[in-house]
């Protein structure tokens, strides 16, 4: 199993990668403000330790504990005031943790304490500038660290586990050391200046020259040497418990060939041979495996990667696969205030005139009535108060007396309803108005039927011979013409019978008069 820190992840900080199953698992939830610099693991107690330079803390987490019962952000072992912890290492045989303090403005140190935080002590505090990384060799019982000295110089140093018998193994320059690891025979460290991993023997000669072990195109950030527990604990009495861990254990081939193009084209994955395509590692996607699956996935919650898939742990008050649903949205009616209770369920605080689980019920308003109290000779006498209640409520007024009313004021319930009664009143007034409107319309219609109708009959008899075939006699009922009936013979009236007042009435009727005149006179007139 490999433990590592991913600062680019959205919601988790420390992950584990199982070599046998090729699966990732998030271990520690990411905080809003943090800067994890170093991690260390004790296989005996299954305790994970890490340093946070921003929060100035050393934290721990048990990997044996049930994930449902443990704090996903870890537990604080030490909270420091002036120290800035950076590198950290674990002595599993003796139960100590070692860490470096890089506060160069005051005093950089190397310190240690028990796993429970007790017996804290400073073991190195002189001739040290910025110890950036630290490692422990159980077999030799030695402590190794990198000191990024002021200017361009750096050094690789060693001491006993209590800080005694200090030695400088290498004093060189033009390196920017960042991480350190030890194996059975060598010391390895990461250099940011050359983007290279260097190494020297554990017992180097006086004029040792660092050996360039491997070079990268990008800055490497961490290093772990393949140093088996069996090699570390052999013939070490203090490591008896640790050495038992390898007994009856299945040997796993944890040596893998790293592809030469790892990280060059595919950021988090491997390039498919012969194709410009990537096979992304679990938890990443994109054409070049550059996008974590948790990016912008959880709307209101924390995202973790499980078996390569993004899963959300929603914040309080949100649900859904992506925590996109606010449980309070639209829950409380009538301007009620929504909040979340201890059971993560929405509850409403209703306005004064509404009630119910969702403030959906209108509280019936009350009216007050004042009655003259009866006189009494003593101050403690009861006052007789009456209430002008409706016929549906005859309860005694004293049962509904309010604490904020005077003795002359009481509540009468089931009286005027501000919602129901205005609607009923409006409907009654509307019906009455419509009734009177119908009566007026019926009266007007009756008057129209009583108006006189034109009913006139004219008989025309001409002795002259018409030019066209025309009956000798035409009998017309003008009433039918006026009622828009079809007449076979045009309607006309003798000129002599036209009233003089109509001859000069309106120009619009001139054409009608000419028509009647032409039909009255003979064709050769």
Structural descriptors:
four-stranded antiparallel beta sheet; mainly beta; single chain; 525 residues
Apparent shape: elongated
Which sheet architecture does the biggest sheet show? 4 strands, antiparallel
Largest sheet, spatial ordering of strands: 4-5-6-7
Number of extended strands = 35
The multimeric state of the shown protein is: single chain
Structural class: mainly beta
The low-confidence runs, each spanning 5 or more residues with pLDDT under 50, are 250-256, 369-386, 390-413
Share of helical residues:
10-25%
Strand content: 25-35%
Q: What value does the Rg take, in angstroms?
A: 52 Å
What does this protein structure show overall?
- The protein has 525 residues and is mainly beta.
- It is built from six helices and 35 strands.
- The strands form 13 sheets. Strands 4-5-6-7 form a four-stranded antiparallel beta sheet, with no helix packed on it.
- The protein starts with a strand and ends in a 5-residue tail after the last helix.
